[in-house]
Amino acid sequence: MPKKRSSRLKQLIFIILFLFLTIFAAIYTIGLFSSGQQQKTQSISEIVSGMTLNEKIGQLILAGITGTTMDTNTRNLITQYNVGGFIFYKNNLVNPWQAVQLVNQIKAVNATNLPLLLSVDEEGGRITRLPGGLVNLPSNQQIGVVNNQKFSYKVGAILGEELKSFGLNMDFAPVLDINSNPNNPVIGDRSFGDNAKLVSRLGIQTMKGIQSQNIIATIKHFPGHGDTSVDSHLELPIVNKSLKELKELELIPFERAIKKGADVVMVAHILLPQLDPQNPASMSKTVMSDILRNQLDFEGVIITDDMTMRAITDHFDIGRAAVESVKSGSDIILVGHHYKNVVETISSLKSAVQKGEISEQRINESVARIIALKRKYGINNSKVGSVNIEGINQSITTLLNEYLN
Asked: Could you confirm whether 305 is annotated as catalytic?
């Protein structure tokens, strides 16, 4: 064979091989992202109808994790149990580099699932979880003293910016509890003040500031944790008020925030005997369905406070509590601590559906709300880069100099 023809043949083979590899790579890439693209183009009802029961129940769970790296348990929660999201605490986030690595690892493992709610309690003041020497934002009480709506909005916007920088998408803030009981051991300076008008005005602005950064804000602790004298982390608080009394004070900020676009409401572990003598608010049909849904017209996502708090665990089996909570109207069960608690909660919910105690239609309603929330905020599995701590601190310092000095 002449050398020219041999050389052309080799070139032709090389071109064919190159084209084949290019096409194969394209097909492989399309395969990798097809589930994500389908989720974007499908209607919510189509997505829900295509999910298994395990996947649906997983969406109803927001889980805490142990440690600072991706471990077997965290991986299992994503791949085996399909959880809908995670909450991070101070002991999970030790420095900006590690925090971003952990968030990115979680997103990578979750790549083919519905995107995750990645949440934190970042309120400002003494309730802060993010690492890296961020300048502390003022407490709600300090914001209440300044009593300037622009200041409240800008604090919310910086809270949102902080979460976004770390790759998170959901903040359990603002607190809309009215600090009406000076002996309250858990709310105190986390509240904007002791009257409904002030709390409503400033709380709504903080909520809108958080939302302005495309971060989900969560108003809490419904129906009002301000008039309690014990800490629900340690025991079950009792608020002996009628619905009429609640409507005259505690419910006002929540009702106004709902009208102004609240997407998520966190329900407290407090017992209100005049409304429901058996169940705390987080397990009460009266509180969640009758009052929050029907009377206040809330159509968004209802999440419980952490079900591993002693207000629940000292009085109820956690799995049973989760079942009662979903039956009563909650969409997401927050299980902040211990892998076994998360697994038990999932197992109990699945068993309740299989036995017919909870209908699959009831689960579908919650899953649809959760997917709608994730879609509204464009939540995805995209990784995040390094955090500009210096830039955020400069914004905070400028804001504090403008309003506090």
From this structure: yes
